[in-house]
Write a structure and sequence with these properties.
By secondary structure, this protein is α/β, with parallel strands linked by helices. It has helices spanning 13-22, 57-64, 87-107, 146-164, 186-191, 211-222, 245-252, 261-274, 281-289, 296-300, 310-321, 328-341, 346-354; strands at residues 3-8, 28-35, 47-50, 69-72, 113-119, 169-175, 177-179, 196-199, 205-206, 208-210, 233-237, 243-244, 256-259. Helix 7 (245-252) runs antiparallel to helix 12 (328-341).
Amino acid sequence: MGKVVLVTGAARQLGGRFVRRIQRDPDVDRVIAVDAVPPPHRLGSAEFIRTDIRQSAIARVLAEHAVDTVVHLAVTGGGGAAAGGGHSAVKETNVIGTMQLLGACQKSPTIRRIVVKSSTSVYGGASRDPAVFTETTQPKSLPSSGFAKDAVEVEGYVRGFARRRPDVAVCVLRFANILGPYADSALAEYFSMPVMPTVLGYDPRLQFVHEDDVLDVLRLAAQEPRRGTLNSGTFNIAGDGVLLLSQCSRRLGRPTVPLLLPAVTWVGAALRAVGVTDFSPEQIRLLTHGRVVETSQMRDTLGFQPMYTTAETFADFARSRGSGLLPPERVGRAVDRVAGMLNVDGAGVEEGAQR
């Protein structure tokens, strides 16, 4: 008998793609896809069960199908139709849903492996943060709201489950910002704006992971570990290298509008109110201070090497969005002029970002 894999969040784009991907694994016998709403895409030969993981019915699903592997992708920062409601519903699914799911897994005698999608946003974003976060780095300031706070709570529940069920292999994947042609995140929406508001005086370092690499590492984590690897623990997942926000704007051909931090906060609230993009306080912190993580554990312990670097990931995303308002060269000159006005040594910063 092959493995029986249950995937949460199957109605979202990433969840649907993973459901179709994991079916091709020769060790997988059946895939059970669950979500609170019907998926807008096909799921191949997977069996879709419409159920809300916030409800106790998820325990019955695990028992009836003798699930041995759970891939929890329903932890998300976005709303939309696939989320089954607004921000409050998303938060409940993230936190209450994870509690219910883990409670059901704890009682299940067939569960052997759990993979949880998390985020590097658990490290927060503050001016006193270290240049690079490792998996054991404690944030200077814990996230106080939004998806980052949800992810911190989710990881806390996962650690509690791991203590209660030491016989179950638990793998937490902290993804950097996910981009690619099909990306539907708040940051993807921000990069798709014709003009991007930025925080005056800041040019944050950013890391990205390609959505194809996300699918591959999820599949790896759901498998039995190979010799010399360990498919349990907590791992930062990101492509090699970093990009400055100014470099991103140049490569997109989209101009930026530097604003004082209070003005950016006001603009973000206005954009959220009219539904243009989810320009949350969490995203504003990212666009102020940036975030870079160490990924040696991903390679050495988990045994995963991304196909795309951060720059290659962004290039693939940029191609999918088409040309911006202005030629990249013109945007570059404009950014350089602004940097000069702010007495920022843009060339030196870019050189440091490439190292």
